[in-house]
Amino acid sequence: MKRILFVCMGNICRSPTAEGVTYNLIKNKKIEHYFNVDSAGTHSYHIGEPPDPRTRAAAMKRGIDLSGLRARRVVPEDFERFDLLLAMDHDNLKYLKRGAQPGHHGKLGLFMSYASKFDIDEMPDPYYGGEQGFDLVLDMAEDAAHGLIEALQRHK
Questions:
Q1: Helix axes 53-61 and 14-28, enclosed angle (nearest 10)
Q2: How far apart are CA 137 and CA 16, in angstroms?
Q3: Which of 8, 54, 78, 89 is catalytic?
Q4: Is the pTM of this model over 0.85?
Q5: Lowest CB count within 10 Å: 7, 12, 40, 129, which one?
Q6: Which of 14, 54, 56, 72 is catalytic?
Q7: Neighbours of 26 (CB within 10 A)
Q8: How high is the pLDDT of residue 31?
Q9: Which pLDDT score is estimated for 132?
Q10: What is the pLDDT of residue 131?
Q11: Is 143 a catalytic residue?
């Protein structure tokens, strides 16, 4: 089983979206026994809170229910527990690199590196923008999730 952790700053917009979209794809492909997904933040601003209401609403329009998720912060054990820790942007990737033991650096990367339709390696934070930002994040997450799952299935 491959264990994947999606990471953004507060764990209320981008990383829970990535978790929900990827889980939905895994469930639809009926490959839940091969993958486990989770999300976390690099900061503790929102620990215990559900994803942002705009994030939940945008995801629900696509049939993805994020209401059961709660924000948490990345902990040292995550570097042991997960096979991949995928950041939504370079700042959060730097945070992960600072926290990881040298033997775990190969587990770190950017989620958008798996995208094929978007020629960008960072997922923008929609928190301070309008509703369209949450739809864009969903589009980006769907693209990257497909690429991620395909890449992992090729390298079983």
A1: 30
A2: 11
A3: 8
A4: yes
A5: 129
A6: 14
A7: 19
A8: 96
A9: 94
A10: 87
A11: no
Q: Write the CA distances from 68 to 7, 19, 65, 106, integer angstroms.
A: 17, 12, 8, 30
Per the annotation, the verdict on 121 as an active-site residue is no
Q: Provide the number of structural domains found in the chain.
A: 1
Here the CATH number for the domain that contains residue 38 is: 3.40.50.2300
The reply to whether 13 belongs to the active site is no
Mean pLDDT split into 10-residue runs, the chain, 156 residues: 97 98 98 97 97 98 97 98 98 97 96 97 94 96 98 86
- Measured between its terminal Cα atoms, the distance across the chain in Å is 9
15 vs 115: CA distance, rounded Å: 15
